[in-house]
Predict the structure.
Amino acid sequence: MATLKMILIALAVLAGIYLLLCLVGPKRMAVSRSLTMNAVPMAVYQQVDEFKTWGKWSPWHQKDPNMKLTYGEKTSGVGASYRWESKKMGNGTMEVLEAEPGKRLKGRIQFSSWEGYSYDTWSFEPAGENQTNVTWGLEGDRDMPFLFRGMALVMGMKGAITRDYEEGLSNLKTWVESLPASGEELTVTSYEMGSLKFAAVRKQLPMAEMTAFFGPAFQKTMEKLQSDGQTPAGAPCGFYFSWDMENQTTDLAAGFPLAPLPAGQPSEEVKTPGGLLKVFPGALVIDYYGSYEKIAPAHEAMDQWIKSHKKEQVPDMPVIEEYVTDPGNEPDTAKWLTRLYYFYK
């Protein structure tokens, strides 16, 4: 009987200690860490905004290289999403709710083992010449169950998450600063090729680095135009001078037109798998609606028209993609308008 009494007393003491731990344990999970990186805000933003680049720096992707990832139709901007499955890291989903290019991001995380949501937040603040102060945060949408708080304290959950965030920022810094386009001096050049006039930053680069290149190049070009008192004549564009699939490289300029691109009444319209192809004297135009990853049929339709009509592209003239719709303002990829231009003779 005395032994049973001692056991009950011990259990009561342990229960009391655990309740005390629950009282002092974290009421709601919230973590925030910051790090300064040697890159302009847009260059860092691009690497976080695009889910497919997370494998380059995410601490969880690196802890489990066998993690199964399933991407949504969008992988960047508002509405972008992906799902992960991992024996080591658990399962869950993430979706981008808010995106202000070059400034901030907010995503919603759903862990399969946890009720409710957690919110993943990012801010990108200029911190000097070609430097950015990056802040990465996480906060739950509700208080943790009272009896779980003691376990969270004993297991050091907040400390573990904090270390992951610090490691992630350190990895991101290393990755971003290794990219040729992040932190190097970008030069804006004005081009005049017949009726085509535009200002852009031009670079030969691997296709894998295009995402990191676009943001800083657009930003630099716009700053130059504003300082010169000029106004773009259209939406931001990619001007493609070469596209080498074998070596996975491209000669690309990113910037803005300074004179209107071909428009008006076409002489012919042709329905194609890539969109409605419009024929103008010396130029072909397609209004393509959809995600950037699925734009290939539109380019193929242009090539097919040129071949079938025994024409050829004008030497040295770029293929143009005009990004009419801002993905940050329109979450539905089906509504994204990219206008393609090919010049022929």
